[in-house]
Amino acid sequence: MPSQDNVVSQTIPHRSGGSREVVRRGVLAVVGDGASLDSLRAARMVPMTALSLDIGRRPPAVEGRETLTLPDGTVSSLHARIQRAADGSDMFVIQDLGSTNGTYVDGRKVLGPTPLGSGAVLFLGSHVLVFRLVTAAEMDAIEEDAARPLTPVPTLSPTLAVTAAKLRRLARSEAEILLVGETGVGKEVFATAVHELSGRTGKLVAINCAAIPRELVESELFGYEKGAHSTAQARKVGLVEAANGGTLFLDEIGEMPIELQSKLLRFLQDRRFSPLGSTRVIEADIRIVAATSRVALEKGAHVQEALLGRLGAQPIVLPPLRDRIEDVGRLCAYFLRDVTDGRTFEPEAFKALMLHDWPLNVRELLKVITEAEVLSRSTPAIGFEHLPSAIVSKLQLDIGDEFEDTNVDPEPRPLDDTDRGGAELLVTSAPTTRLRRPAPTREELVRELTESKGSVAQVARRLGRQYAVVWRCIQRYGIDAGSFRSGGHV
């Protein structure tokens, strides 16, 4: 049975007047290293069941500690340690153990014991991890989605996994569903998943209420008879009738005219409607899934209260991508699934993706990856030069902090500090041979870019420097790396 040492409890009020205890456990989402799509597809959640977790390429087994092995040559044998705070509070800290390539939290280098908030993004060598505090129910939901993904990409996000579990249960009911989320979170993807699980024999028919002129929404929904208006040269079947036996997805329902919302509400009550210009009453067996990007519905969203109640007393909120950042790796692998030439990411480019806020959510990620794939076709990997500058700038790197690389892990030395179990805390000491290196000159970079035909990755390897450092220097000098691919000169 797992140890309970790493469990964090929180007592919250219950509507009955008492309270109930919510137990949360520290977990690590191992996102992958970006250099292999298989690594990103194999992203996994690792629960922490002890007070202390040692992470590295070959972490030694120590009684009372767990270990996480990362098969990555840029990760030191004993790289970093995560521990629960000594006071038993809802706090975990990470400490670098003298690693060769450093440990970073949210893009900033760890210089001492550093607190970890839920959702913190960790860089260890080329590997990316995300720390979370999750409940048992959330962990169960993550495992359920791994076994039976609701959408094409299974989630590691606790919030989204719980939402997916709820949608999976609702799918086979006849209940209407209202999805709420920011633009680009993939509301239609989840509506499609609900339809596919519903067992309904008809098709999914979608309409974006914001993309159709207000005066045409009614005719699009309910259709019209010949002669119903000046341009009605023939009878038109509406989307409601077309979705008979299936599901009608109403995206951006908050943009539907109020008067038409009343007609939709009447239809939902008896599943009957009349096309424009007709006295015929048509019955339609359809299930409605609606969506809106207006998250704060109670603060002025243009959806009638009665219609909201009919669509779902409790709207189902889909989290934005920034709140499910551990899914970025799997999403990237999915978007690149048709690439057959082995191209992946330069490590620092993938890290930049993990630090971006993604204001336009999954839709923005899809656009960025699709464009980067096209731009990188003459290179072995997607690098900084293939990503928007707004994303590259998120990676906080200081050229002045770069040191000589070494492939030899320093020997661990015991310090006086001890963990809660009484064992010595092994911290590796930095090699005394590491010296600061001056940044590459403009002339060096121009020469190397010419030789490598614009490949920043090759330049970094030839100079023995970090990719991110070389790229930052290229940007600083105003060099257009892309112009060297065709023999140009800057």
How is the secondary structure organized here?
Layout: E1 7-13, E2 19-32, H1 37-41, E3 44-47, E4 52-56, E5 65-69, E6 80-84, E7 92-96, E8 103-105, E9 108-109, E10 114-116, E11 121-124, E12 127-135, H2 136-147, H3 158-170, E13 177-180, H4 187-198, E14 204-208, H5 214-222, H6 239-242, E15 247-251, H7 258-270, E16 272-273, E17 282-283, E18 287-292, H8 305-311, E19 316-317, H9 328-335, E20 344-345, H10 347-355, H11 361-375, E21 381-382, H12 389-392, E22 412-418, E23 424-428, H13 442-451, H14 456-463, H15 467-476
Parallel strand pairs: 4-5, 13-18, 13-19, 14-15, 15-18, 20-21
Antiparallel strand pairs: 1-2, 2-3, 2-12, 4-6, 6-7, 7-10, 8-9, 8-11, 11-12, 16-17, 22-23
